[in-house]
Amino acid sequence: MSDNRAPAKLNKVDKAAILLLSLGETDAAQVLRHMGPKEVQRVGVAMSQMRNVQREQVEQVMGEFVSTVGDQTSLGVGADTYIRKMLTQALGEDKANNLIDRILLGGSTSGLDSLKWMEPRAVADVIRYEHPQIQAIVVAYLDPDQAGEVLGHFDHKVRLDIVLRVSSLNTVQPTALKELNQILEKQFAGGANATRTQLGGVKRAADIMNFLDSSIEGQLMDSIREVDEDLSTQIEDLMFVFDNLADVDDRGIQALLREVSSEVLVLALKGADDAIKEKVFKNMSKRAAELLRDDLEARGPVKVSEVEGAQKEILTIARRMAESGEIVLGGAGGEAMI
């Protein structure tokens, strides 16, 4: 938030940033644990841009807690150090480092990294007329959820070609990355002295496929199977879909259920098979399971898109918890994915 922004123009992200900056590192980290990666990134960017927060703005956000917040000073001063400590506590060092760089570098991020700050449609437009191998490198470099959205803006034939190329990628020479950055009119930081970069592969393709709409995913998988049946099997084995929750151990399911709202759970289970429902029921208290069954029976017909959206929301939480080591997920083939 810049200095000349009027208090009345505070948006929800700005308000969340002020609140987290006011809480302190430990409490803020606990809040961030319950947010998705994209939410953490958006709030983190807003926090890094906070400068000279006015008391009126703090009062607007904190309400009855204004007296407590008023005892804290220097909001926005030295925020970089605060953000680094807080995100490391919330996400773990390895996961936080990449996100910290993206947050604190912000608009000055160059080359391929700059694409991660763009809307998926804009990224698709940037690479639409590039060589298919360049498209594949860009898609493999993006976060899987963003990559999935980018693929959604191409036609089926292009999507198939890109996913096949991503699957066959293993390492990329730093000179190739440097040339790609020049195409994007930027220079890759440290590229000339770097070793080969791990990029792409079957696992990356599977991660991206997880974030595609179900209709697109099914059509694309059928086409991959026609081209290379072994590859389609490898991708399917590494994918984690909603039905695979039945293979998560009871402790993992219990931990996951604590992070999912009742409304989202009801919607997701409307389209789930009996094995998933029973898995959920047996990992809840008897009373909670009865209430959930009643809610499912009382809920009328819902749109398929709403069910798929709820299931994807739960899968996003599950993947985040797996990355932090809280639970262990198994793909369709039973492979561990941590």
Account of the 3D structure:
This protein has helices at residues 12-23, 25-32, 37-48, 55-62, 66-70, 79-91, 93-105, 112-115, 120-127, 132-141, 144-151, 156-168, 174-183, 202-210, 214-227, 229-238, 250-257, 262-270, 274-282, 286-298, 304-323, and strands at residues 171-172, 197-198, 329-330, 336-337. It is mainly alpha-helical and 338 residues long. The protein has four domains: 12-71, no CATH class; 109-188, Annexin V, domain 1 (Orthogonal Bundle), CATH 1.10.220; 202-238; 242-324, Orthogonal Bundle (Annexin V, domain 1). Strands 1-2 form a two-stranded antiparallel sheet. A hairpin with a 5-residue loop joins strand 3 (329-330) and strand 4 (336-337). Helix 9 packs across helix 11 and helix 11 packs across helix 14.
In short:
Helix content is 64%, strand content 2%. The protein is mostly helical and 338 residues long. The relative contact order is 0.08.
End-to-end span in angstroms? Answer: 36 Å
**Tell me, what's the shape?**
globular
**Which quaternary structure do these chains form?**
single chain
Structural class: mainly alpha
Q: What's the count of strands?
A: 4
Which ranges are low-confidence, i.e. pLDDT below 50, for 5 or more consecutive residues? 1-8, 64-77, 105-109, 186-196, 331-338
Largest beta-sheet details: 2 strands, antiparallel
Helix run count: 21
User: How confident is the prediction overall: mean pLDDT?
Assistant: 75
Order of helices and strands: HHHHHHHHHHHHEHEHHHHHHHHEE
In spatial order, strands of the major sheet run 1-2
- At the fourth level of CATH, the homologous superfamily of the largest domain is Flagellar motor switch protein FliG, alpha-alpha superhelical domain
Helix fraction, binned, reads 55-70%
* Reported CATH architecture of the largest domain: Orthogonal Bundle
InterPro entries: Flg_Motor_Flig (IPR000090), Flg_Motor_Flig_C (IPR023087), FliG_a-hlx (IPR011002), FliG_M (IPR032779), FliG_N (IPR028263)
Keywords: Bacterial flagellum, Cell inner membrane, Cell membrane, Cell projection, Chemotaxis, Cilium, Flagellar rotation, Flagellum, Membrane
GO biological process, one term: bacterial-type flagellum-dependent cell motility
Organism: Pseudomonas fluvialis
